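User: ok so my PI wants both of these folded by tonight, can you help

Assistant: No problem, let's get them done. Here's the first:
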Amino acid sequence: MQPTEPENQPPKALRRGETILLLLPLFSVALGYGAMLPVLPDLLEQLHRGSPADALPLHAGLLTGIYVGAFVVAAPLWGRVTDRRGPRGVLLVGLVGYAASTLWLGTADSLAEGYASRLVAGAFASGLLPATAALIVSRCDEASRARHLGWMSAAAVAGFLVGPALTGAVHSIMAALPAWRDDALHLTAVPIWATAAVALLAALWVALKREPSRAAMARAKSAGGSEATDGPRSQGGLLILSALGAFGLGAFEVGLSLQSQRAWRFTPGELGWLFVTCSLVMLLIQALLFERLRNRLRSAWLVVGGFILMAAGFVAIASVSAFGAVAGLVALIAVGSGLLLPTLSVAIVEGAERAAGSATGYQNAAGNLGQATGSAVIGLLFIAVPHGSFAIIATTMAAAAVVAWILARLRGANLTGR
């Protein structure tokens, strides 16, 4: 029989091992997203047999877009369910549903099945972020809450970083086996199934882990002291800033590839190292430096500074061509986004207090909408104004910094409105 928590004991910070396991669901979903990217062309060739070859890029964009679109619609709904029913059930259903739909993708034999499986996967995966945020709020005191919320972004970045490496390793092993060397289906599907297995392991941990007692969750919810919570309307400014930050990140990810194709002529390997640089910088910022910076600087200044760093990077990156200079500016943009996005996440959760799941769900939706919009807009800008595309994005980031400064004057330097 497991001991119960004393009724007067305040919520504590999680131990390191508990934190790693708590972030495993977010890591597993990001792992799946990153692992699918290298096999996406081969997957589409199998799924869209009989269709024109020039339609492949369109389907690649739509297959990714429908997954992101599911987050925009479903994340707020999962957030509400989390606040009403608790985070554990949402984590369990989300992981099992994501794993099942990922296995479905690995066995799909038509485009219709491919689109349906990605839509379902996104719908289930979208519940994991608000549920994880709510669980952190229920288990941590206010002093350690920001650190654990910041690690949520780090877990997602780490999963995205490891995903392509996992695909490469599994692909190499499968290609070396005589029975499957020429089996294109298995060479494509096995890496996808491997990520589903990781999600199922995460689901097993959630199923076996003891849920916090209702008393502990009630104490955590009342830790902020206020009965009222900031709903989506009162947090509209923070959601707009989240969308703008994700807009810049989406524009950056696509714009980097387009600029390389148009001007830099980097090899795929060099371009890959630029993306690795971006991911590693964001991971280091969010996992190691975020809490220290937030303890020394007000949230508003981290957000304003993050937008300014991104704007400066966008202004300069179009005028350089040496790989080292480009890598330095990529790191600068990564520092900016790595600071402002988790800072906004913490401000939204702290402002929401008792509705952490709903607040995180709305922010997740805003962020995914912003990222998808940024990816589309930069593509259009490279067609309409190819030499001014990054300057326009830089202007948008500078305008976002002004909006953040104005919001800080209205809500206070911590942006929570309290």
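One down. Here's the second:
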Amino acid sequence: MVDETVIRINDQQFWLYAAPNPQLNDMLHLRLFLTMTTVLTEIFLKELRQKHDVEHIFREVKRRNPSFLNSFSHVEPSTPEKWLQSFARWHNAPN
């Protein structure tokens, strides 16, 4: 989720872009721009993606855990989803 709002600094108007993490009630990324354009939105999204590279997270999880499965055969979609949710709970559990 990305949101933007106008703020005033002295007599000037700025656009504040924010990507909140509602589960943790914190901000993933913030930027202040003098204007709002598609190019600036793309810059913000690119920075957010670089800062929170999900693909990097999956590569690291696969590297550290040979038990991580990314291929399932002859199962209903709910089966891998349950397995991956269980894997996430195990991965996030304190050691």
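Residues 1-52 form one domain. Residues 82 and 88 are 10 Å apart (CA to CA). Good luck tonight!
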